[in-house]
Structure formats: C-alpha cells, structure tokens
Design brief:
CATH superfamily of the largest domain in chain A: MetI-like
CATH topology of the largest domain in chain B: MetI-like fold
CATH class of the largest domain in chain B: Mainly Alpha
Largest sheet of chain B: 2 strands, antiparallel
Number of helices of chain A: 13
Radius of gyration of chain B: 26 Å
Strand content of chain A: under 5%
Strand content of chain B: under 5%
CATH architecture of the largest domain in chain B: Orthogonal Bundle
Largest sheet of chain A: none
Shape of chain B: globular
Helix content of chain B: over 70%
Number of strands of chain A: 0
Oligomer: heterodimer
Distance between the termini of chain A: 64 Å
Number of domains of chain A: 2
Strand order of the largest sheet of chain B: 1-2
Structural class of chain A: mainly alpha
Chain lengths: 292, 307
C-alpha cells in the first residue's frame, strides 16, 4: 500500500514537472521572441523617436523614447532643404512604369515558356535562368557603355529599359503557370478560344497570387534601388528618393533629426505596401525558395 | 455543344501553315521580353567577356590588352585588399545569417499566439531600403555618443569600439547590419521547409523515446538539408555581390577596411573610367561565384537529403 502511494505520488510529480517544463518552455519561447522582435524593430523605433527631436537631443542619454516636445516641424523642413518632392515623384514614376512593363512582358513570355511549344524553347529558358545566376555587377559596365551609345545615360528611360525585361519575373511566373493544368487550356482551345483569349481570360485571372508576388517584389526592388540610379542619374531633377536620401545625408550630416525624418518618409510607401500585401511576400519567397 | 457541332470544321488546313501560325503566336508572346532581354542582358553579358581583355577609357580608341588586365590585378593592392574583404564578408555573413535564420524559424515553427506578428517583424528589415537602414545603423553605432556606445559605457565598458569608424571593427559592423537585415528573408524559406516535414516522423521518434535534441539532430536537420543547400547557394552569391550596404555605411572605408570587390569595380569603372580593367575584375568575381556554386553543387550529393 505504502509502495503504491509513493508510486502514484511519483507519477503525479512527474506529470507536474513535465507540465511545468512545458509551460516554462512556452514562456521562454515567448520571452525570446519578444526580445528578438524588440531588437529587430529597435532601429525603426529609434528612427521615429529621433525624427521628432532637436538635433542636440538625438544622442542624449538615457534615451527619451517619446519626446516631451515633439518637433513635428522636422517633417516640413525636409521638403524645403532639398527637392525631396521631386525625388519622391521620380521614384514613384519609375516604380509604377517598370512594374507595369515587367508584369506585361514577363507574363507574356512566361505563358509561352509554360504552355506553348516552339523550337528552342528549353534552350532559351535555360539562358534566362542562367542569367539570373550571373551577378548584375559582372555586366553593368557593358550595359552602361551600351546605354551611352544610345545616348540614354542620365535619363529615366535607361533605368526603365534595364529593368523592364526581367528574367526573374519570367522565371517566377513560369513556375506558377506550369502548375495550372493543361486540361483547362485544352478545353478552351476546343471551344475555339485563341491563345490570346486563353491568356487574358483564363491564365491571368487564375494567376493573381503570382502576379501580386511579382508586383510586390518588383516595386519594392525599384523603389529601393540604389546602384542603378547611382550609375545612371546625374541631373538633380532626375534623381530618385534613395539618391536624394544619400545626398541629404552627405549635405546635412549633422542634422540627425532631419536625416531620420527623411529616412522615415522614404520608407512609408514600402511599409504601406508591405503591411497591405505581406501575405504575398511570404508566399512568394516560400514558393520560389523551396521549389528552387 | 450544339455551337461546337454547328461550327464549320476546318477539314483541310494546310498543315505547314498552321505550324507557322503556331510558331508566330508563340513568338508573339515571347518577343516583347526576349528583345529586351537580348539587348540589355545577354549582349552586355557577352560583351563583358570581351571587354575584360580590352583597354578602354570610354573616349579613346578601344584596344586589345590580352591578359594584361589580369596581370595588373596581381600588382593592384586595392584589388588584393578588396578580395580579402569580400572573402571575409562572405565567411562571416553566410554562416551567421544561416544560423540566425534557422534559429528564428525554429522558434516560430510552434503553435504560438502572434506568430504572424513576429514573422512580419523579423521580415520587415529586408524590405526597408538599404540607405535608410544603413543611416540608422550608423547613428545607433555612432562612436562618440551613439546609443549603443552610451549603453556600453553605462555597463562599464572602457573604450567601447568605434564600430564603422574603426579599421578593426568596420567589417564586423557591416556584417551585423547585414545579418540583421537578411535573416528574416531566409527564415521564411526555412519556415516553409519546416512545415513540409511530415509530423509522423516526430511521432515515430517519440514512440522510440527520442528526446528533443535527438529529434532535431536526426529528423529536423536532415529534412532541412534541401532548404539549407538552397539558402547557402543563394546567400553565398548574394554575399559576393555585396555593395549597397557597404557603400552607404562606410563607402569602403575607413581607409580600405571595407572596400569589397564590387566597390572596387564601381570605382574603377565609373570614377577612373577604366572599363576594360573593371570588366576583368568583374570576370574574377564571376569565376569565383560560379566556382563556389559548382563546388556547392558537387558537395550537394554528400550531405543533402532529398526524400
């Protein structure tokens, strides 16, 4: 009897202990995640806080996270210091045009690669995929020389032409198109639909997630592009937001609060797009990543 | 159905002509992209191969240089330093980013409340522009009065590092920023791979009495090898190409402490206008990237486990 009691006591203590261990594990996980999330966001939080201070208070320690007297005027000053509005507009223009062109040309080509048969198709596709693996930096010099021959250096058209025909876009959409069953297309063909009809009325509507993914990737990449504009754009009135931000940093290096305000403003479109469509970001990365 | 049968059927289509139409249709789909791809990507790629053996400043006559560009590289001290810096960056950035992203993915691959919030948070730095990210890092790590060093000196650290302003610490500072920025992206790839592992494996292991570590070591890690392989290849290529982050954070300095290969290419081409020499350095970068990728694919058989 006594033995039985000790046994049962032992077993309950074991379950209690494992329950405790389990709870502790959960708790530790949450603690770790919260600390990590804090560190991930810290630079951005600090950015917001610093952008609302006077320059002399930015580095005051201990940090005053919520400024007692927020300097909202920082956000109006940046627009007058440098032609920030022009830069913003240029980036917006380039982002919209390049993204639209890329969506059009990529989805067209991807349809041919995925669903049509023509001689040389597989070789051509191999060339596309191979070009993705080659660093852009390897051929940026000849590209520049080519653009100079066309007399397009220092124009938005140069950047548009360079980015509108993306091999990556073709690859991404092709992978998605392949997964759409041929039966649907064949049925439409039997009903007398042309390939263009099939593309516009069946393929595109079925591919909304993939198109959304490409839209996000491209627009974020163009908005954030730094090296392209750095090489191609010299005139003040053509520069993009990233170049403008860097110019601001170089010219007003000690105006810490203004720099932070400008940096934050440059992030707003990306933050908005990201929060709105983050599902497609995640799905896009997961699908291109795992399938390779 | 009735519409179909009423339609006049083409009983005598010239087979050749229909073949031609098919081809024309296929090319009409592909040409808009193909023309641009040929002119702006493929031709420059081929041209870069030729340019590597040429001398050209962009204004005067282009002339054949043969291997002169490559022998010059051996004497070019900046090239040697840049090569070393690039290798150091790759050697630090790849393992650190992979470990961090795997860690994050494992933490998040549990039934947790707020998983989406954490995932979004960890991923966000990746979409934020590099210029903005670099400038805020530089301010946080500002040597004299930045918040990081203020905290360090409060904790009693004498002479905290001067971070991106110090020759010894600059590279490490850039790597830290790079890991912080990139780990959320690769975390998502790992998360997708983790979710593809069949739970039945863990259940079977539990029946056999495996502990958490054993489950991780003998199920999770082997099942993740395809993702690990993919990430290691992508990350290595991306690390060899590092430019923006370094350019905005340090500009390659102090001195030449963070001058990586792409910065050297950029300066040689667009500041010194030595297009031929820049192309030959780019060729070296290309050969290294391809070489390491080939080695990785060769090693793949030894450790990657496809189901």
């Amino acid at each position: 009897m006594e033995r039985l009691l000790t046994l049962s006591f032992l077993s309950t203590s074991i379950t209690l202990r494992s329950l405790f261990k389990f709870k502790m594990g959960k708790l530790l996980t949450y603690a770790a995640l919260i600390i990590l999330a804090f560190f991930m966001l810290l630079p951005f939080l600090w950015m917001v806080s610093a952008s609302l201070k006077l320059d002399k208070d930015v580095f005051r320690f201990p940090i005053e996270w919520i400024p007692s007297k927020p300097e909202w005027s920082n956000y109006t000053t940046i627009w007058t210091r440098i032609p920030f509005m022009t830069f913003f507009g240029n980036s917006l223009k380039l982002t919209v045009i390049i993204t639209l062109l890329q969506l059009c040309t990529s989805s067209f080509a991807a349809y041919a690669f995925a669903k049509l048969k023509f001689p040389g198709r597989d070789w051509l596709f191999l060339a596309y995929v191979g070009s993705i693996a080659i660093p852009w930096q390897v051929y940026m010099v000849p590209q520049f020389i080519l653009m100079r021959q066309f007399d397009l250096v220092d124009s938005h058209l140069s950047l548009i032409l360079l980015q509108a025909f993306s091999a990556f876009g073709v690859f991404l959409l092709r992978q998605f198109f392949v997964s759409i069953p041929d039966d649907i297309l064949d049925a439409a063909r039997i009903d007398g639909m042309s390939e263009y009809g099939i593309f516009f009325r069946i393929m595109l509507p079925l591919s909304k997630p993939a198109l959304a993914t490409l839209t996000i990737f491209t627009s974020v990449a163009v908005w954030n592009d730094f090296m392209g504009p750095l090489i191609y754009l010299n005139s003040q009135n053509l520069k993009t937001i990233q170049l403008g931000l860097r110019m601001f940093i170089q010219q007003y290096g000690a105006d810490y609060a203004l720099i932070m305000a400008a940096a934050l403003v440059s992030l707003i479109p990306v933050i908005a797009l990201f929060l709105l469509l983050q599902r497609f970001f995640v799905e896009g990365i997961a699908s291109t990543g795992v399938k390779g | 159905m009735s519409i179909l049968s009423l339609k006049p059927t083409n009983t005598h289509p010239s087979k050749r002509r229909s073949q031609f139409t098919k081809l024309a249709i296929a090319y009409s789909f592909i040409l808009p992209n193909l023309i641009g791809f040929l002119i702006f990507t493929l031709i420059p790629m081929v041209f870069s191969l030729i340019l590597a053996f040429m001398n050209w400043d962009g204004a005067n006559q282009i002339s054949w240089a043969g291997l002169e560009n490559f022998s010059q590289m051996l004497r070019d001290e900046t090239f040697r330093i840049s090569l070393g810096n690039t290798i150091a960056f790759v050697a630090l950035n790849v393992p650190l980013t992979m470990a961090a992203s795997l860690g994050l993915a494992l933490l998040l691959n549990q039934p947790l409340r707020g998983r989406n919030f954490f995932r979004t948070t960890f991923f966000f730095p990746y979409v934020a522009s590099l210029v903005a990210v670099a400038v805020v890092w530089n301010m946080l790590f500002f040597p004299s009065a930045g918040p990081v060093n203020s905290v360090l000196s409060m904790l009693g650290v004498q002479n905290p590092p001067r971070w991106s302003a110090s020759v010894d610490w600059a590279m490490l500072t850039v790597v830290m920023a790079s890991v912080w920025r990139g780990m959320g992206y690769y975390m998502i790839i790992y998360l997708a791979a983790l979710q593809n592992i069949p739970t039945i494996l863990y259940e079977a292991a539990a029946v056999d009495g495996a502990d958490t570590w054993q489950k991780f070591r003998y199920i999770t890690l082997p099942m993740l090898t395809p993702a690990t392989f993919f990430i290691s290849v992508m990350l290595t290529i991306a690390s060899f190409k590092v430019f923006d982050l370094v350019m905005v954070m340090t500009g390659g300095g102090p001195g030449r402490a963070t001058n990586v290969l792409v910065i050297h290419i950029f300066n040689t081409a667009f500041k010194e206008f030595r297009f031929g020499y820049a192309s030959s350095i780019a060729m070296v970068l290309f050969v290294m990237v391809i070489g390491i990728t080939v080695i990785q694919f060769y090693m793949e058989r030894r450790w990657v486990n496809y189901q």
